[in-house]
Amino acid sequence: MPALLDVKGLKTHFFTEEGEVKAVDGVSYDLEDGETLGLVGESGCGKSVSALSLMRLIPSPPGKIVGGEVWFEDRDILKLDMDDMRSIRGGKISMIFQEPMTSLNPVLTIERQLTETLQLHKRMSRAAAREEAESLLARVGIPDPTRRIRQYPHQFSGGMRQRVMIAMALSCSPRLIIADEPTTALDVTIQAQILELMKGLTAEAGVALIIITHNLGVVARYADRVNIMYAGKIIERGEAREIYRNPRHPYTVGLLKSVPRLDQPRRGRLEPIEGQPPDLVNLPQGCPFRPRCRWAVARCETEAPPLMETGEGHWSACWQADLLGIQALEQQDEPQIPAIADLGAEDNRT
Amino acid sequence: MRATPNTEARPGDGIANGDVLLEVKNLKMHFPVNSGMLFQRAVAHIKAVDDVSFAVRRGETLGIVGESGCGKTTIGRCILQLYRPTAGQIIFLERDLGRLSSKEMRAMRRELQVIFQDPYSSLNPRMTAGNIVGEPLLVHKMVKNKAEYRERVAELLLNVGLNPYMANRFPHEFSGGQRQRIGVARALSVEPKFIVADEPVSALDVSIQAQIINLLENLQEQHDLTYLFIAHDLSVVRHISNRVGVMYLGRIVELADRNEIYTNPAHPYTQALLSAVPIPDPVADAQRERIVLRGEVPSPLNPPKGCVFHPRCPAAIDECSRVVPELRQVQPGHWAACIRAPGYGAV
Questions:
Q1: In what order do the strands lie in the sheet with A19-31?
Q2: CB–CB of A40/A14 below 8 Å?
Q3: Residues whose CB falls within 8 Å of the CB of residue B271, separated by 6 or more in sequence, listed in order
Q4: Are the C-beta atoms of residues A244 and A234 closer than 8 Å to each other?
Q5: Per-residue pLDDT reduced to its tens digit, B233-264
Q6: Chain B contact set for A218 (CB, 8 A)
Q7: Do B280 and A160 touch (CB under 8 A)?
Q8: How would you classify the pairing of strands B112-115 and B194-198?
């Protein structure tokens, strides 16, 4: 059976005054029906742009999808005309955004915002759409939906707004939901509620889910597979368990080691990834992670490593992948003090 | 030596013999909610901070955690005298800050600095990094001439891991992590004793967060600093703090030593909060018990009667809706405000 979604060599660039920003630069992955995929990376790594590209929501100019294919239900989304695209957007593929404060329309009632998609995509009558909207609100755990549906977004708390967004995303029974940092703006106890809810509802309806996040912890519990992005590329991909227990890219190892963990004894000093993410206009030659990498060898400087299979279904874009894995994760490195923020600044404290 | 003698036990006593640098006593900060078209009058009060007491001893890091709206930032601002508290005292270096004249307070600010959360909005975009860092030196007349000023600014930048040649750059030329380093250098410039760090790493990417946390720890060792570290991220707070206070709806509900509070949380809210933190390991995460709390934090305009947490509490009994639980010791040095906590009031 072909995958539900097959992204091949997607490239989205932004043409700015500073130059061509290669926000997404050759990203390929697939997604099975009903699967949950985590797309993890730090700000500016291209994770949100790659998701917006799937929906063809890249502001143009300055942005442009300059290459690649996105196969969804045996059609290349990138070649569809605007009418066909509109039927997919919000219908077959829907999206949950980070900021429930800004992604709901403040001057329309929740009813209006929920029934709009139902009337448009499912051609429901107003009364039927209203009834459906109320049952959707009940499904996402909003108490007293008959009363709440007449209210405006400002009358809802952050967590409740995100529930409304989930109801909206589910409303047209999509096959794929893309959630872009769905819990970043929420408190940790509310975050737990929302993640449980999303996972429960998508599993129940057999909907595939892409969770985009900068927090490795958020997807650990919910994702089947995880893609790690850095500087516009996927640098590691595999089963969630593999990524967390047996990481094969120095960036993934660094991310896992730089966060303090509640389930482990406290360590002396954290091990940060030194330096800054690269400038996407002037990417260094060779591997983009090389300047920050403690495993770098001469080859990394000249030749950018492609995504190579290091284990079953586990891919890494690193020449040194075989040296990494569980031992790199457990190895206690001498803490690199002092931390130097910039370009070879000499520090004279120690 | 304490400014005022007191006999009753407070959540600052008996933790260690180190001397107390800062003490907060029965702090209340209520914000009026005004109404009326022309003649504004207070119709209600938001109890942002309601009767909070704690002490910070010299050289330690006291972490304050809680969710948005719990009052943790307000406590920081009251300590800095950016807000005038409704009631209560803040005793710093044995002086009651609320009673100082504005001139005395200005001098006191040399000892009492702050690092803000958002490195994008807390730096003046029209000032160079060097002037941002050096301005407090001029305000407090800490340098004699231009050469000394330049030398000191260069030293400060170096101290936080920035290159001195960056002094001529403007904030927009720096990344988020570097901006936060500028904020740290500015706070350090006047050689303070005490720093309120209000969510200093929340706006940063994880790989940069660790850099700033290590920097704060190194500086603490070198300059004998005392921190009040306010954050919502429990793993970060555990890492950096010696003791941790957990806040909920304007009150401290639990306060204990770092290891004690994380291995042996006594308050149901702390337990739920800890269990909600995601762990970056699917295998380990699956083995943890997860307490998903019902509902949301109630409005501080109209907090619940009795224990403010009782409507969401899995352990609540009838009495919880009537009695406001005081912060009491459940173990020596471990304080909790819950009548259901084992050992509550026994110590």
A1: A19-31, A5-16, A63-72, A75-76
A2: no
A3: B265, B291
A4: no
A5: 899 999 999 999 999 999 999 999 999 999 99
A6: 278
A7: no
A8: parallel
pLDDT reported for residue B4:
38
Give A194-240 as a DSSP string: HHHHHHHHHHHHT-EEEEEES-HHHHHTT-SEEEEEETTEEEEEEEH
Q: Is residue A187 over pLDDT 90?
A: no
**Residue B96: CA atoms inside 13 Å, Cβ hemisphere, count?**
11
Q: What is the pLDDT of residue A183?
A: 84
pLDDT tens profile A119-139: 988 889 999 999 999 999 988
**Optimal mutation site among B239, B263, B301, interface A, most CBs of chain A within 10 A:** B239
Structure tokens at B304: 């619940």
Which of A181, A221, A242 is the best mutation test for B, with the most CBs of B within 10 A?
A221
User: Which residue in the set B181, B282, B288 is minimally distant from A341, CB to CB?
Assistant: B181
Give this complex's ipTM: 0.79
Element holding B197 (H helix, E strand): strand B194-198
Q: Which residues contact B35 (CB under 8 A, 6 or more apart)?
A: B41, B43
Among A42, A261, A343, beta carbon nearest to B280: A261
Q: Supply B213's token pair.
A: 């946390």
Does the beta carbon of B207 lie under 8 angstroms from any beta carbon of chain A? Answer: yes
User: What pTM did the predictor assign?
Assistant: 0.85
CB pairs < 8 Å spanning A and B:
165
Contact B282 A262 (CB under 8 A): no
Span A223-241, pLDDT tens digits = 999 999 999 999 999 999 8
Q: Answer positive or negative: Cα dihedral of A335, A338, A340, A344.
A: negative
Determine, for residues A189 and B278 on separate chains, whether the beta-carbon distance falls below 8 Å: no
* A-interface mutation test, from B169, B211, B275, most A Cβ less than 10 A away: B211
User: Which chain A residues have a beta carbon less than 8 Å from that of B244?
Assistant: none
